[in-house]
Amino acid sequence: MPELPEVETIARTLNSLLANRRIKEVHLFREKNLLTSPSIFLSSLQGDSIAKVERKGKFLLFRLSSNRTILSHLPMEGKYYLYDTPAKKGKYDILSYDLDNGKT
Length: 104
Known about the structure:
With 104 residues, this protein is of the alpha+beta class. It has helices spanning 4-18, 38-45; strands at residues 21-28, 49-56, 59-64, 69-73, 95-99. It is built from two helices and five strands, in the order H-E-H-E-E-E-E. The relative contact order is 0.25.
């Protein structure tokens, strides 16, 4: 599991890449990782924007323009990827977002 300095670095990097980006589409690959209904999760995020990404303890908080928050935790080797084009699902991927700048 990443320690606090690594989580802070990840939060700052993600914030610089994702702040003010609109979510065009959400692809959910592993429903069991959600704490809410998949249909509610997917419908509520599409068209929303990521206002900022910040850290609270070892959690990453994706603050949305709708005043909602996506809570994320990095497991042992959790990673985030940013692709220039739509990416194929990886073996351990939970979800992906298609953003307004064409990145995934």
